Amino acid sequence: MKKALKWVIALIILLGIGYFSFGRHEASAKEETLTVGIMAGDKRTDEQWKIIKANAKKEGLNLKIKTFTDYTQPNAALTSGDIDVNAFQHYIFLNDWNKTHKSDIVPVGETIIVAGRLYSDKHKKLSEIPNGGTVAISNSKITQGRTLLLLQAAGLIKIANGVKDPTLKDITDNPKNLQFKEVGTDQLVRVLPEVDLASVDPSFIVGSGRSIKSAIYVRPIDKSQHDGINIIATTKAKKNSQAIKKFVKAYQSKNVADYIDNKSGTGEIAVWKGAPEVK
C-alpha cells in the first residue's frame, strides 16, 4: 500500500513538473520580440527606454533596442529588415527620406517635439550677436532646415515664403550678414566656443554636461511646427501588426509622458493624442 502511494505521489510530481515546464514554455513562445532602432543617447535616454520596455513586457512584447550614430542608418535598417520599427525622426525627415529613397516607411504614432534652442558661449542674448557673426549649423539637410526656421523665428533671418525644408539658398534676408559654418550634427556642441551662435540638439547638450537652460533663445511651440513632431515609423507591410500596436501603446503611456515632460531634463515634450499637457 505504501509502495503504491509512493508511485502515485511520484507520478503527480512528474505531471506537475511537466505541466509547469510546458506552461512556461508556452508563455515564452507567445511573447513576441520587436527590434527598435533609435539614435544613441545618454543615461536619460536609457532610462526612458527602460520604462517603455517594461510597459511592453506587460503586453507580452519583448523590445530589443538597437542604437545608431548616424541619422541615415535607422531608416536604411528598417527597409532592409534589420529592425522592425524606429523612433527617431520627424515628419519632415521621413517625407524627404521616402521621396529620395522611394521607400514605403509610414508613421504609426507620434512621440515628442523638441523646442528649438540657440546656444552661445560668447553672448548672453541675441541682440549681442555681431554683424558678420558666425553661426554653426548642421550639414545634414533636414537638421539644417530646422535650424534655419529656428533662426527665422528668432528674427535673425528670413526664409522664402512657403518653404518648409529650407537650405541656405532659401534665405531672402540676412540683415546681420551672418556667416554660416556647416559641421556634423554631433560636432555642433564642440564648436560652440569658436562661433557666435549654434542650434544644438538637446541630447548633445545634455551629453556634453551642459544644461538646456543655458540656451539664449527658445522657440515657442505652436501648431505651425506639426511637421517637426517626432514619430514612430515602420514599413507599410508591418504597420497593422499587433506587435507594432503594442509598441506604440507602450510608448504612448502616462509614465513615459511623465518622464519626458518632468524628469528627462531634455526639454522634449510628449505630444501624442492623450498625452498630458505640460504645466
UniProtKB/TrEMBL annotation:
Protein name (record): Periplasmic component/surface antigen (NlpA)
Lineage per the UniProt record: Bacteria, Bacillati, Bacillota, Bacilli, Lactobacillales
Key words, A-Z: Lipoprotein, Membrane, Palmitate, Signal
InterPro entries referenced in this protein's UniProt entry, alphabetically: Lipoprotein_NlpA (IPR004872)
The keyword Cell cycle belongs to this UniProt entry's keyword annotation: no
Domain of life: Bacteria
SUPFAM superfamilies: Periplasmic binding protein-like II
Predominant localisation class: membrane
